[in-house]
Amino acid sequence: MGIGLIIFLIVLFIAAIGGTFFAFRQEENKMKKYAEEGQTFQDELKRAEEYEERSLKSNIPVLSWIYVITILLSLLAFAFYLF
Length: 83
Description:
The chain has 2 helices and no strands. By secondary structure, the protein is mostly helical. It has one domain. About 0% of the residues are buried.
């Protein structure tokens, strides 16, 4: 393989990992905010139920798009290398 392709794939991998950590960091910031506010048990229960409903609608699609784009760009890089 060409050195350019290897560098491209490494950069692409780092970007995918960066996107994953970005999504993780957003959730971590929310948790810090909730801890600072001093939520009651009822508030925490309500928030947990809302999170279960929203996480599948928001976090999974974001992470899926990150990895779909990464895989597609990797496949394009390999196709470019083969031709």
